[in-house]
């Protein structure tokens, strides 16, 4: 028995010396496709450092993640928007106490086809485009091509944030093409000359052209300062104050290494 105890103490010393924490536990993360790259990359790195931890990460949209935290089918809900009042009311009726953890900042970037001659729009012009008041690019000093609006679907936190920050709660035009993910928006816009869409900063690539909004370009600096007018925080929600593996993982995401991962994925770290 003494020899077993010595082995255990030695193992504990080695684990602590190398920064590993023993969590023979599994957790599930669901929700926002915008937060998904951060959650996936952080989970992979965390599990590399803590082999006994098992973290499952799924997308589906912010509304899906928040619904899952309310019905107890996930430990962490990723969300690219704040929880709604009606969701808080539902949580209270279930005895759930959602707690928000800001894990990064993001800018919602407006994107068009690379051949579009438009380089800048105002929030007022964007509202006119996405609500249907303007249907041709000539209406905003562009070409005579018809505008093809690409929007996220209603389960998306990016949709909710865009609706609040740009559309002032107005309805998106009925002919908008609704997409289930940021990647899908980028793909459609890159293939459609008249298209305009919006995605999280971490999803922008060379296949699309980004637009300046209200004379401000979306950069890490302008998002963090709040100067870029379509900026928002990214969240992970838990039921009350997290404990155990959930607590340690969220602390990792918000810490130096997790924030470096968020930056690497194209988002804006909090540090």
Can you offer a commentary on this structure?
It is a single chain. 38% of the residues lie in helices and 23% in strands. It has ten helices and eleven strands. The protein is globular, with a radius of gyration of 21 Å.
Keywords:
alpha/beta, disordered N terminus, D-Maltodextrin-Binding Protein, domain 2, 271 residues, 23% strand, 2 domains, globular, 10 helices, nine-stranded mixed β-sheet, two-stranded parallel sheet, 38% helix
Chart the SSEs and their pairings.
Layout lengths: L1 H16 L7 E7 L4 H14 L3 E8 L1 H9 L5 E4 L5 H10 L3 E15 L7 E2 L1 H9 L16 E5 L4 H9 L11 E3 L2 H10 L3 E6 L8 E2 L1 E2 L6 H6 L5 E9 L4 H11 L1 H9 L7
Helix pairs in contact: 9-10
Strand proportion: 15-25%
How would a crystallographer describe the biggest sheet?
9 strands, mixed
Mean pLDDT: 91
| Distance N to C terminus | 48 Å
What's a quick, concise take on this entry?
The chain has 271 residues and is α/β, with parallel strands linked by helices. 38% of the residues lie in helices and 23% in strands. The chain has two domains: 24-105 and 233-264, Periplasmic binding protein-like II (D-Maltodextrin-Binding Protein, domain 2, 3-Layer(aba) Sandwich); 106-231, D-Maltodextrin-Binding Protein, domain 2.
